[in-house]
Each structure stands twice: as C-alpha cells, then as structure tokens.
Amino acid sequence: MDSADQFRFTHIPHPAPVSVAQRTELLANPGFGRVFTDHMAVVRYKEGQGWHNPTIEARAPIALDPAAAVLHYAQEIFEGMKAYRAADGGVVMFRPDANARRFRQSAERMAMADVPEALFLEAVRELVKVDRDWIPSGESASLYLRPFMIANEAFLGVKPSSEYLFIVIASPVGAYFSGGAVSVWVSEDYTRAAPGGTGAAKCGGNYAASLQAQREAKDKKCDQVLFLDAAEHRWIEEMGGMNIFFVMDDGTLATPPLGGTILPGITRDALLTLARDKGLTVREERYSIDQCYEDAASGRLKEAFACGTAAVVTSIGRFRGHRGEIVIGAGNGADPVTEGLRDALIGIQRGQRPDPYGWVQRVD
Ligand SMILES: *Cc1c(COP(=O)(O)O)cnc(C)c1O
C-alpha cells in the first residue's frame, strides 16, 4: 500500500514559467526564502476519502475558506530540507526519509492527518525534478524545500480538522547568515516550549511564540535568541529554529538532550554521529546558562555553534543577556572543531566526501 506507485502525481505544467534569462538573474543572488520556483506539489485529504489528487502545478496563491481551521486554531506543520546539485550534475538530497518521518510525528502531535512517508517523498522528488533548473550551483547555494500541511475544514468548532492540504514549495537559497559568527540573546522572560507541549513538533505555532523574543534579540543587537527551559529558566534548550552545541577545552562536544521540549534536528543528529566517528567525546546533557557563563569566563568553553538545515553549522561568537555579555573563543567564528564538523557535514551533503551512512539520496 505505502509505495510510490500509489501516489502518481498529475503534472499540470506552468503556462508561463519564468524565462531562462530572468531565472539566471534570480539564481545569481537568491538570498534566503524570497525567490520561488515555478511549481508546487499539492495533495488533498478528506476524512473518509484519504489523500487524493496529487498534482504538480503552477505555484500560485491558494484559496482558503475564511473559516478554515488553520486560520483560527493553527493546525499547521512544516519541514525544511535541501536539494543540491552534485559534482556530476545529478541532484541529491540529505536524509529526506528523516524529514518524512519527523513530518509524521509532527502531524500526530497536532492531531492532523497522517502523511505516508512514500507520499511525502514522492511529492518532494517530483517537485525537485520538475524545477531542477532552479537548483543554484554556488558553494553555499541549494534548493530549499518547504513541505507543509494546513487544516482547511471550514468549521469554527474546536476539534481536529477533517480536511487538509499538503503542499511542497521550493526556494533557491544562498547562505542563511552572511558569514563570521552570530551573536545570541539569552531570553529570560520568554520560553519556547514546555514539558507536554509542542516543542518537539515542527509547527508554525512554535515559531509564532518565539517571534517576540526574536524581536527582543534584534533590539539588543543580537542575531538570534536562545531559549531556556520553561520550568526553571535555567537549562539551555535551543534557538528559535536551530539546535545548539558546545565544545569544551578537553575536546568534548556537548548538546542539550532531547526530551519533548527540543526539536529533534536532523543536522543535530548527523553532527552527533560525525563527531563520534571522528573520535570526539560526545555528551547529550543538560547545561545551565550559569555554568555556560562561568565556563566562558574560565576558558573551559572553547566554541559554541548553532545548527539546522537552513544555517547548516554557524559559529556563535557571543552571548548577551541580563547577566551581561560573554565572548566565546575568539568571538569571530575561527573555531577549529566547529569548522571541522561543518566541513565534514557539507562534504557529505554535497557529494564531495564518501557517505558511509547512506545519508545522501539521488533524486534525479
Ligand atoms: C527545524 C528546526 C531545527 C533544526 O532541524 P534540522 O532538521 O536540523 O533542520 C531546530 N530547532 C527548531 C525549533 C526547528 O524548527
């Protein structure tokens, strides 16, 4: 049942795709998340009928009833993944099966329809194939894919929706940060996720809840916000959309443990594996913000970095918060362990290094 054959996408080509000249110009400097490809994948769900009408069609605004459940009760989840142009001109993706699995877990937490992994993967693959000319080929460029699902039953009663739209859009992107190290604001007044809440689900609501803290970070001249645990406001959890790692002076790599309030990043998971195989001591353990400040002052904390699909691996140069500012290492992104892990990961993702884990999958 759960096979790609079951989901045969109907292709309705864009009647007026972007010209080659204009696309070339857009791909030269795409930025992040502002340029989009010609097409999108759309699949509909209705209780009793299941998933139906999978299509690849022209990217266009979607019509929603003003009573659609997503507009009122925020039943929405998404994924973020990338397609790369390999050295031989082919197209590859990094662990798409892990995104498909996480999407199902997010859907379950938000009481949404289950999207079979085969359907998720087929939608992504078909879209990448159709819009493959939109994959930029620069060093830190890729085609960012955004699968998402929204509840679209027109009903104001509070209950899980009986209808859903599963859509994939694609956006050619360059680097997420402009380079060097980022500065991080430690949020003491707002939390992102609480035990029993939706912190481990990739849902838009988590982001909505993080934006005021992110705005506060910007006001404090910081690039990103770091959230602490909701119960004690003491334990470091993660950033608004990235996981966090620390490198200690004995070479140990540490990251907060998952446990319901932290998004289980696929980049996080890959880095843990790569670090272990490089012979680093790896610890998933709680780390308090007080200890972090103390270790930065004593020199025990050597490096810190954020990681995720969009930003890959980004050095953290300083933390700023109610207890003042601390600089990590040189503060400028010249961090040898971070760089080694970043190079190892990017090398595998782009097919420049051997992939003993079977993480890289050919799309086309
Ligand atoms: C997506 C996301 C991450 C990173 O996950 P990756 O799979 O590595 O891209 C981290 N934190 C949050 C809150 C996220 O939404």
UniProtKB/TrEMBL annotation:
UniProt catalytic activity: L-isoleucine + 2-oxoglutarate = (S)-3-methyl-2-oxopentanoate + L-glutamate; L-leucine + 2-oxoglutarate = 4-methyl-2-oxopentanoate + L-glutamate; L-valine + 2-oxoglutarate = 3-methyl-2-oxobutanoate + L-glutamate
Domain of life the protein comes from: Bacteria
GO annotation, biological process: isoleucine biosynthetic process; L-leucine biosynthetic process; L-valine biosynthetic process
Pathway: Amino-acid biosynthesis; L-valine biosynthesis; L-valine from pyruvate: step 4/4; Amino-acid biosynthesis; L-isoleucine biosynthesis; L-isoleucine from 2-oxobutanoate: step 4/4; Amino-acid biosynthesis; L-leucine biosynthesis; L-leucine from 3-methyl-2-oxobutanoate: step 4/4
One Pfam family hit: Aminotran_4
Keywords, comma-separated and alphabetical: Amino-acid biosynthesis, Aminotransferase, Branched-chain amino acid biosynthesis, Pyridoxal phosphate, Transferase
A molecular-function term among this protein's GO annotations: branched-chain-amino-acid transaminase activity
PTM-bearing positions, type N6-(pyridoxal phosphate)lysine: K202
EC number in record: 2.6.1.42
Swiss-Prot/TrEMBL cofactor(s): pyridoxal 5'-phosphate
Enzyme class: transferase
Function text: Acts on leucine, isoleucine and valine.
Family assignment from sequence similarity: Belongs to the class-IV pyridoxal-phosphate-dependent aminotransferase family.
PANTHER family membership: BRANCHED-CHAIN-AMINO-ACID AMINOTRANSFERASE, SUBGROUP IIII AMINOTRANSFERASE
Protein name, per record: Branched-chain-amino-acid aminotransferase
Organism: Gluconacetobacter liquefaciens
Lineage: Bacteria, Pseudomonadati, Pseudomonadota, Alphaproteobacteria, Acetobacterales
